[in-house]
TrEMBL record:
<dbReference type="InterPro" id="IPR016163">
    <property type="entry name" value="Ald_DH_C"/>
</dbReference>
<protein>
    <submittedName>
        <fullName>Aldehyde dehydrogenase (NAD+)</fullName>
        <ecNumber>1.2.1.3</ecNumber>
    </submittedName>
</protein>
<dbReference type="GO" id="GO:0004029">
    <property type="term" value="F:aldehyde dehydrogenase (NAD+) activity"/>
</dbReference>
<dbReference type="InterPro" id="IPR016162">
    <property type="entry name" value="Ald_DH_N"/>
</dbReference>
<dbReference type="Pfam" id="PF00171">
    <property type="entry name" value="Aldedh"/>
</dbReference>
<dbReference type="InterPro" id="IPR029510">
    <property type="entry name" value="Ald_DH_CS_GLU"/>
</dbReference>
<keyword id="KW-0560">Oxidoreductase</keyword>
<feature type="active site">
    <location>
        <position position="256"/>
    </location>
</feature>
<comment type="similarity">
    <text>Belongs to the aldehyde dehydrogenase family.</text>
</comment>
<feature type="domain" description="Aldehyde dehydrogenase">
    <location>
        <begin position="29"/>
        <end position="476"/>
    </location>
</feature>
<dbReference type="InterPro" id="IPR015590">
    <property type="entry name" value="Aldehyde_DH_dom"/>
</dbReference>
<dbReference type="InterPro" id="IPR016161">
    <property type="entry name" value="Ald_DH/histidinol_DH"/>
</dbReference>
Length: 476
């Protein structure tokens, strides 16, 4: 492999403050009964800022602000006027996208190439898309006069911090709801910059409120009696706890949870393209992707060829500084996540699967894990069953399409799947039988605001994106 000259993106475009308050009722405020915590750069372990932690009283303040804004301003506002605010926010995101992308890479550890070329364009596209719906709700197929639900409590994870915010906030506001959003504790910074963008857009106070903190803050928010809707993206375990706490109340609930997608390669697939798809499926965003193609199912007669090409391709991946524009694989988001990936990978070796990583030098500081594949994996292995949420691929083989379907569906999850084949008829046959919310054919990890996304079984319920994404925010 030839050497690249470093191509670092400048971090001077980001104006980091030493500390951040909570964003409630249009202004940044200090917590009343909470504390604070630090957000660090996972690529260097450098402290980026001190972040306010919202306590129960702060959550109460935020929900009250959202209620007032809903009753007095946002709920009664005509859709065409709400649309103007959403368009303004979308344009401001585009104008400030470099700043947002650098901040996202600093706080999350993802390569700047991805935050700049994937996350930020999709974030802006989501706001543009739902801005377009705000004045057309009677034509969305939910009756002649669909009404908003009220105050939405939204809790999001750390893997796509700003994109998950956009998936939550854009449809909620378009439909006429107000929101209190809690970002993940390891990645709060872009949500706080988004709060500044709401101020810049003159969004009425209280329409968007951001409360930072960890699980306790999230629990206080979703359990608050004053919220009408709970939208959660995160682990299946926490999703279950939230479903239990919401049961028996009148709150409406949508859950986007984990996944263990099969990426299925048939012997007639163009192998080089399939290998690109496998790499994109599991090493994009360090594998911190709920719909990651973490189980490769490859037809037995081409398995050796596919694995040889895959290993050659993996040896080209550049792991390192997220702000370097050459980087393909960045840092693992936190020490805790690194520990989970290590534990499950060690279990894979202990259970008898064969582990392989290309030679690669990892930085001394920060949280890193080399791209890894396991071969000789059986369906009983933990690495084939449990979500690893890291750059680790389990490889299994199959002989017939029916066997591929059976193995692909042999999981408690049902979020996504990929099919690689030359035959259109086989794509349709497989897609009909795969129990997954999203099925990609001859591509993987493609997202678009017009397309609904969501899971079956333990991957959750409800859909985000597209016209379907409005349903969770309307009384229909
Ligand atoms: P997590 O469930 O631990 O945390 C997610 C969020 O919930 C965080 O903001 C956290 O602070 C908060 N939280 C934790 N405990 C809570 C509680 N008891 N009540 C309310 N909120 C609480 O998940 P994670 O490790 O941060 O994220 C990874 C998981 O998210 C993976 O399982 C992944 O598959 C899933 N995910 C799913 C999707 C999807 O669209 N289906 C998208 C991204 C991530």
């Amino acid at each position: 492999m030839f050497e690249y000259a470093p191509a670092p993106e400048s971090r001077s475009v980001v104006d980091l403050k030493p500390s951040y308050g909570l964003f409630i009722d249009g202004t940044f405020v200090d917590p009343t009964d909470g504390g604070s915590f630090k957000s660090i750069n996972p690529a260097s372990e450098e402290v980026l800022a001190e972040i306010a932690e919202a306590g129960a009283q702060d959550v109460e303040r935020a929900v009250r602000a959202a209620r007032k804004a809903y009753d007095k301003v946002w709920g009664p506002m005509p859709g065409r006027d709400r649309a103007k605010y959403l368009y303004r926010i979308a344009r401001l995101i585009q104008e400030r996208s470099r700043e947002l992308a650098v901040l996202e890479s600093l706080d999350n550890g993802k390569p700047i190439r991805e935050s700049r070329d994937v996350d930020l364009p999709l974030v802006a596209a989501h706001f543009f898309y739902y801005a377009g719906w705000a004045d057309k709700l009677p034509h969305a197929g939910f009756g002649p006069d669909p009404r908003p639900i009220g105050v939405a409590a939204q809790v999001i994870p750390w893997n796509f911090p700003l994109l998950m915010l956009a998936w939550k906030i854009a449809p909620a506001l378009a439909a006429g709801n107000t929101v209190v959003l809690k970002p993940a504790e390891t990645t709060p910074l872009t949500a706080l910059l988004f709060a500044e963008i709401c101020q810049q857009a003159d969004l009425p106070a209280g329409v968007v409120n951001i409360v930072t903190g960890a699980g306790d803050t999230g629990r206080a928010l979703v359990e608050h009696a004053g919220v009408d809707k709970v939208a959660f993206t995160g682990s299946t375990e926490v999703g279950r706890a939230i479903a239990r706490s919401v049961a028996g109340t009148s709150k409406k609930l949508t859950l986007e949870l984990g996944g263990k997608a099969a990426n299925i390669v048939f012997d007639d697939a163009p192998i080089d393209q399939a290998v690109e798809g496998i790499v994109n499926g599991i090493f994009f965003n360090q594998g911190h992707v709920c719909c990651a193609g973490s189980r490769l199912l490859v037809q037995e007669n081409v398995a050796d060829r596919v694995l040889e090409s895959l290993k050659r391709r993996m040896a080209q991946l550049r792991v390192g500084d997220p702000l370097d524009k050459n980087t393909d694989v960045g840092a693992i988001n936190s020490a805790a996540q690194l520990e989970r990936i290590r534990e499950l990978s060690d279990a894979g070796s202990a259970e008898g699967a064969e582990r392989w990583s290309p030679p690669c030098e990892l930085p001394d500081r920060g949280f890193w894990f080399a791209p890894t594949i396991f071969t000789g994996v059986t369906q009983a292995h933990r690495i084939a069953r449990e979500e690893i949420f890291g750059p680790v691929l389990s490889v299994l083989t199959f002989r017939t399409p029916a066997e591929a379907v059976e193995k692909a569906n042999n999981t408690p999850y049902g979020l996504s799947a990929g099919i690689w084949t030359d035959k259109g008829s086989r794509i349709l046959w497989m897609a009909d039988r795969l129990r997954a919310g999203v099925v990609w054919a001859n591509t993987f990890n493609k997202f678009d605001p017009t397309s609904p996304f969501g899971g079956y079984k333990e991957s959750g319920y409800g859909r985000e994106g597209g016209r379907h994404g409005l349903e969770g925010y309307l009384n229909v």
